[in-house]
């Protein structure tokens, strides 16, 4: 099966009301493990890279990893650039083969955000790629992008005008969600998703998914959240899995890097499988 497009993956999820895991990877091991977990679950998956990861590993390296790991893959997969305010990085990634980008101009006035998003959509279309847009910053700092200060929410009319004028394929509204670790169960504005979808049927991206309850996921997916972002949960799984293995290795004074990699791979793949089941995408490939 060839690499899919964002629109193909999320449009079906939106129509059938399930969520597709959109998971931020941090290196080759996590990319391979996320893809393996999706294959085991027979689930579509959106592999996401932050700007920090792109700059750390290099777009050429990431693109080569992606091409190698997805050759002949049996489930729909998408490579997405997450929360990118830098137009040059968007161009670089589109040129290297990313087929989906989130242009994050949420710190700009809505009018300027809209103007530039129209340009990004035009650029992406020339590459056969798709675009996620947002007009409000999601609370929390993720890989150096964002703010811990909640941004003001725009009126429904402003959101609808942005969606219609820009032609974005996915929209990410602020609904009380946040990046990072929740200190308590988040209070979410479920109705805002319904209001947007009711006026303009468009797949919604749910950011800050790590730490939400199953009831919250299920409710939001039923309302139209077709893309469910997971970043913090992968980082925690990656670090804790590594820590537990290394703690045991130290106690036994036995040092086996390939075994460490296999241990972490297993846990990250299991996380991906569990998310696919949780969001209803398992078996949809």
TrEMBL record:
Keyword Glycosyltransferase in record: no
Keyword Zinc among record annotations: yes
Any GO BP annotation: carbohydrate metabolic process
Catalytic residue list: 82
Example GO molecular function: zinc ion binding
Annotated Pfam families: F_bP_aldolase
Cofactor note: Binds 2 Zn(2+) ions per subunit. One is catalytic and the other provides a structural contribution.
Positions annotated to bind dihydroxyacetone phosphate: 180, 208-210, 229-232
Gene3D superfamilies tied to this protein: Aldolase class I
InterPro entries documented for this protein: Aldolase_TIM (IPR013785), Class_II_FBP_aldolase (IPR050246), FBA_II (IPR000771)
Record: residues binding Zn(2+) 1: 83, 179, 207
Cofactor (UniProt): Zn(2+)
Binding positions (Zn(2+) 2): 104, 134
Protein name: Class II fructose-bisphosphate aldolase
Annotated source species: Cryobacterium frigoriphilum
